[in-house]
Design brief:
mainly alpha, 2 strands
Amino acid sequence: MKLFAIGAFVLASLAAGSAAAQSAAPPANPGPVIPGVCVFHNDRLLAQSTAGQSVQAGMQRLFTEVQGELTPYATSLQTEAQALQQGGQAADPDGSRARAFQARAQEAQQLEQRRQAELQYTQRQQIRAIATAADPILVAVYQERGCGLLLDRSTVYLQNPAMDITDVIIQRLNTSLPSLSFNRLEVPAEQQ
């Protein structure tokens, strides 16, 4: 079973945001502020905003729920596989037990794939909700600061911290969207 693959996906997604939010020590001389050039760090917004943190916590909760749902299937299948291996031909003379095992294993695999798709879809929808709330804030700060060019921090190695508008956006997003509460979402049929 790929139970741990689901966990790896969820945890890797969350860790990526947290790791990206950490940066190296700034240089002693950051250079001049370039008028009209601003920098925004979306990964840091997702990792440090209260809404982003609620998505991380919610996804961890959903992963634990899915893991709790799938673990009994995996345990049962593992027990049955061992019984079939140890019993050999005598344990399943007509092969019906092996066919039933195969059918159950296929059902478990389909359930696991469905849950993994639901977790991915749920995470995308929550990130989309944060982006929807953050976009007008980003535009407002862009205009307030007189930005003529907004660079994504993931493409900028170093910049003068005075050009970074991420903290302001996080503060305003925390006010307008303090958290998200959600459950696992079913993937719409047209997106499966």
